[in-house]
Design a protein that fits this description.
The chain is α+β, with helices and mostly antiparallel strands and 100 residues long. 38% of the residues lie in helices and 20% in strands. Bound molecules: iron/sulfur cluster (2 copies). One iron/sulfur cluster is lined by residues 30, 46-47, 49, 51-52, 72-78.
């Protein structure tokens, strides 16, 4: 019986911290510094919310693009994956917040 209570406490802890983190960072959104992007796709593989995708720039080079900013929780996971300093967090504009 004790193991059930412990499991419930652990699961509740992770759900609550996840919800709090999600809520706390809704004022920020990821931004791509295109000139630094090497097109490695590491950020796209890491983002569980499918916020980023690859697009070709005017030179035909692949670069990350913020396709779905409303889904970005500003968790920072993609930023930790980027070895080229091509991702950063920006404060959302009022218009962007209104779309959440
Ligand atoms: S991880 Fe960085 S360099 Fe790689 S595609 Fe994403 S933004 Fe570009
Ligand atoms: S900050 Fe988090 S949610 Fe936003 S694009 Fe990066 S990994 Fe996805």
């Amino acid at each position: 019986m004790n193991i059930i209570y412990i499991s419930l406490i652990v699961v509740s802890f992770f759900v609550l911290t996840s919800l709090l983190r999600h809520k706390r960072r809704r004022d920020k959104v990821v931004n791509v510094v295109e000139s630094n992007c090497a097109g490695c796709k590491a950020c796209i593989r890491r983002c569980r919310y499918k916020v980023l995708e690859m697009v070709a720039n005017e030179n035909g080079e692949q670069a990350a693009f913020v396709k779905n900013p409303a889904s970005c929780t500003a968790c920072g996971d993609c930023i930790k994956q980027c070895k080229f300093n091509a991702l950063e967090l920006h404060t959302r504009t009022q218009e962007s917040r209104n779309k959440l």
